[in-house]
Amino acid sequence: MNFYSQVKPIETRIPADRQRAKRHYGVHPYFTRRPYNVVREYVLRFSKEGDIVLDPFGGSGVTAIEALLENRLGIHNDINPLANFIATGIADLRFGSLEEYESALQFLKQECEHTLNKMHGMSEAELLEFKTISPNLFQFPENVPLPRTSDVKRYFDLFTLKQLGSLALLRKAIESIDSKLARRAMLLAWSATLAKLNKTFLSAEGRAESRGGSSVFSIYRYKVAKEPVELAPWETFFDRATNVLKAKAEIDQTIRLKKQTGGWHGGFQSYSEDVEQLACRLDNSVDYIFTDPPYGGHISYLDLSTIWNTWLGLTPSLSQRQSELIVGGELSLPEKEYVERLGRSVKACIKMLKRERWLSIVFQHWNISYFEAILNSAAEAGAELKAAISQVGDPVWSMHKKKNSSVLSGEMILTFQKNGVVRKTSHRGRFDISDALTQVLGEFRDEEVLGEYLFNRIVIEAWKKSAIHTLTFSRGEFLQLLSDAGLKYDQLSHKWVRDASQSQLSLSFSK
Ligand SMILES: C[S@@+](CC[C@H](N)C(=O)[O-])C[C@H]1O[C@@H](n2cnc3c(N)ncnc32)[C@H](O)[C@@H]1O
Q1: Which long-range contacts (C-beta less than 8 Å, at least 24 apart) are formed by 111-118?
Q2: Is residue 83 in contact with ligand 1, taking CB distance under 6 Å?
Q3: What is the position in ligand 1's atom list of the atom closest to the CA of 301?
Q4: Cα–Cα distance, 207 to 220 (Å, whole number)
Q5: Is the CB of 271 within 6 Å of ligand 1?
Q6: Quick one: pLDDT at residue 206?
Q7: Ligand 1 site, residue 216, Cβ cutoff 6 A
């Protein structure tokens, strides 16, 4: 019996820990970053040391970085240049000494702190005069147009002159750092600073002015603050750079510990390709894939990354933009194509896996045809669904629920094993959703249940009965079904609780 056939799939939800790892939290913001502890547990369960672990929709690199630190070869891929910049930037912190990075920060302090503080105190007129006498300090990127959904039209409209000037000054100073590694690390901190020194930065309510984030990460568009906050540029950068140094120290320490206990031989590679293209390169060579593809039209990653990609000189090509797996965006990418390509991407993932290896896909959406595309494609490509776990109920879930209770928050982790048995999917099954709900509720001892959990179970049960196509309800209709089943939505806990007035359900629910 080999390792892969003996693996027992993860059968329960892993509580998310988002903030503990300094290598992921606080270095650089990105969209829908996965909790590192969940990713790590999956990597440890489904692969072994020396294995190749891939995330083809890698985002900020959590999967490949955790794989690297756990003695695997982590392969990161993402069509978004910003994602690769962040992931490689963090992974490369394993090189060089902490002292080298610290002295780069000291160098920047000497070069920039005084001027930045002076600029921070200047009036608009004084700044303009300063710009006239020192034009070489004010080297700005191209004033590109912004996506249609933005509050403003062009790149420069996203900044005050002070913000643009401060970022330009810092950027120029970073270029003159001798050490290539330290220069990269400081550029990572600079890019994270860019997320704060612009007019889309919104301070978090009831916290220090500097706490908060850009609207691109919260409402997924360039919303400009009514009264933009002008954070002190040097302090903001110093904070970001300190976080990068903390991440480096943590990575060094993790590797040191590994070296003391059996040795460290992890590796990291990065690609920036469409996942179907990547499959030609990595055919039949990967031991484990953990990934979360884009969920339809929620987030246009490339559009929203314009603010970074433009100034970093990493503007994506038209063909990269056309292959982004999303619905809508500036190119108005059609939904039909998204569903087809989502299915083909899953097939591409399975093509990259060696036989008997495992694949975990994180996903959530009200549109059940998206799930259908994933599940059918996996079956048709010779992978068997072994577990479907709802990762719901953590603090981020509650926060989303507080904002909008009908939103589907959290996600499902679908885990498959490639066994080479191709299953033809059919549309012939029958499914009675009310019966299925009663059955699922009957399995519960608890008095309350998460709507997402019920939704996910219904989707999977219907798929197993070859009847996922019969689930045509809208989100409103699904919520109505829960009420009809005798459940009541509790606004405080955001859970569905047994409605005492519906005695029939109370029997089945507390079974
Ligand atoms: C949900 S995010 C992944 C976030 C990641 N799990 C993390 O922890 O940061 C999905 C990613 O898919 C990328 N993407 C979109 N279309 C792609 C394509 N065709 N090929 C590869 N990556 C793509 C996006 O740029 C985005 O970073």
Answers
A1: 111/173, 111/176, 112/169, 112/170, 112/173, 112/234, 112/237, 113/234, 115/169, 116/166, 116/169, 116/170, 116/232, 116/233, 116/234, 116/237, 117/232, 117/234
A2: yes
A3: 25
A4: 22
A5: no
A6: 79
A7: no
Contact call for residues 182 and 100 (beta carbons, < 8 A): yes
Cα–Cα distance between 181 and 470 in angstroms, integer? 55
Question: Strands 267-271, 73-77: parallel, antiparallel or unpaired by DSSP?
Answer: parallel
| 3-class secondary-structure state, position 74 | strand
CA 96 – CA 93 distance, rounded (Å): 7
Q: How far is the CA of 343 from the centre of ligand 1 (A)?
A: 15
290 Cβ below 6 A of ligand 1: no
How deeply is 298 buried, as exposed, middle or buried, from its count of CB atoms within 10 A (0-12, 13-18, 19+)?
middle
CA dihedral 410, 413, 414, 419 (to 10 degrees): 170
Which candidate, 187, 229, 223, places its Cα nearest to that of 205? 229
For CA atoms 211, 213, 219, 225, the dihedral sign is positive
Going from the Cα of 57 to the center of ligand 1, the distance in angstroms, rounded, reads 4
Separation of 463 CA from ligand 1 center, angstroms? 26
Residues 6 or more apart from 366 whose CB is under 8 A from it?
Answer: 408, 474, 475, 478
* Tokens 């998460």 found at: 450
Q: Report the distance separating Cα 182 and Cα 286, nearest Å.
A: 32
Instruction: Write out the H or E segment, with its range, that includes residue 480.
Output: helix 475-484
Q: Residue 510: what pLDDT? A: 27
C-alpha of residue 78 to centroid of ligand 1, in Å: 6
Ligand 1 pocket mutation pick from 27, 82, 301, 365 by most atoms within 8 angstroms of CB: 301
Residue 507 is predicted with a pLDDT of 32
Residue numbers in the chain where pLDDT is lower than 50? 503-511
Q: Topology of domain 428-511, per CATH?
A: Arc Repressor Mutant, subunit A (1.10.10)
With beta carbons less than 8 A apart as the criterion, state whether 62 and 42 touch.
no
The answer to whether 384 and 327 have CB atoms below 8 angstroms apart is: no
Lookup: tokens for 196: 């704060």
pLDDT at res. 227: 86
At 416, list the tokens: 């498959």
Q: Which two tokens stand for residue 69?
A: 């630190």
Q: Where are the domains of the chain?
A: 94-248, 428-511
